[in-house]
Specification:
By secondary structure, the chain is of the alpha/beta class. The protein contains twelve helices and eight strands. The N terminus is likely disordered.
Length: 282
């Protein structure tokens, strides 16, 4: 009995170090339908060896939640690795060198060759925190040169799940929608190949990373029905990664897509389609 009491005291003491989550919002276990507190979610995310957190790239609340989860999980058990969709292989040597350096460069984005497409104001706090931790920060995406090669000559994608027609159809619809219907039909197969090769690379990196591993990626990459988890299974894993989807209120997230969802307030939308029409001269 005394041993159980001591374990309970130690557990409670550890919980006291976990800061309150940065935002409130409904958190749901998508398999049971149960509503969870942030602390209950943490307890469930403590268990899996591989975890993916899906995000909306331009939602500041999602990045605040990611940083909170990364810190809080690290206080509960040792973190094995953090992988980012936003980092590519050519940046890995720069990341590794910075982790060994006791001082932070004045211009950290420049030192990392950070890509302009990812808003540093949103991702910077996560990267800065990860660089101070004992576990590796790992690039999970394709390099630009690799993307060009895939686009020109799509490789054969091996695996029954990732080649399912339902997966390809869903992804093609998303690619068309995300490009506002402006992409010529002739470009769609190449764009699908790029999307799936990026998923395959993230899956490979996630499987090779020290565990417990955590991948931060866009929602479509994170989805269990069409994204990285499908490729993890095609690569021979016996169990798919656990997926937490961060989504704005009103989004339809199902158990086929993720294991858990954390809803955040709706944010004002940029008119990306208007910007794209100008780019395409429409």
């Amino acid at each position: 009995m005394r041993g159980i009491w001591l374990l309970a005291v130690m557990w409670l003491a550890g919980c006291q170090h976990v800061a309150a989550p940065p935002i409130s919002g409904e958190i749901r276990d998508l398999h049971s339908g149960e509503l969870l507190t942030a602390q209950q979610l943490l307890a469930r995310l403590d268990e899996p060896e591989r975890l993916i957190i899906g995000e909306q790239h331009d939602n500041a609340a999602h990045h605040a939640v990611q940083l909170w989860l990364l810190k809080s999980l690290g206080e509960q058990r040792p973190q094995g690795s953090l992988l980012l969709e936003m980092l590519t292989p050519v940046q890995q040597s720069k990341i590794d060198a910075l982790r060994k350096n006791a001082s932070t460069p004045t211009d950290l984005p420049a030192a990392l060759a950070w890509q302009d497409g990812w808003d540093w104001k949103l991702y910077g706090p996560i990267v800065q925190f990860a660089l101070t931790q004992p576990y590796p920060l790992l690039a999970a995406n394709l390099d630009t040169s690799e993307i060009r090669t895939v686009y020109r000559t799509p490789p054969t994608l091996r695996g029954e799940r990732s080649n399912a027609q339902s997966v390809k159809t869903t992804l093609l619809e998303q690619i068309g929608d995300s490009h506002c219907g402006l992409l010529p039909a002739s470009q769609m197969p190449a764009m699908l190949a790029v999307q799936q090769q990026r998923d395959r690379r993230m899956a490979e990196r996630l499987m090779a990373a020290p565990t417990p591993s955590l991948l931060l990626a866009g929602a479509w990459h994170a989805r269990k029905d069409v994204g990285v988890p499908v490729h993890v299974l095609d690569l021979g894993a016996t169990q798919a990664p656990t997926v937490l989807m961060l989504a704005e209120e009103g989004a339809a997230i199902t158990a086929a897509m993720a294991d858990f969802v954390w809803y955040t307030p709706v944010t004002p939308k940029q008119d990306y389609c208007e910007q794209m029409r100008k780019q395409f001269g429409k």
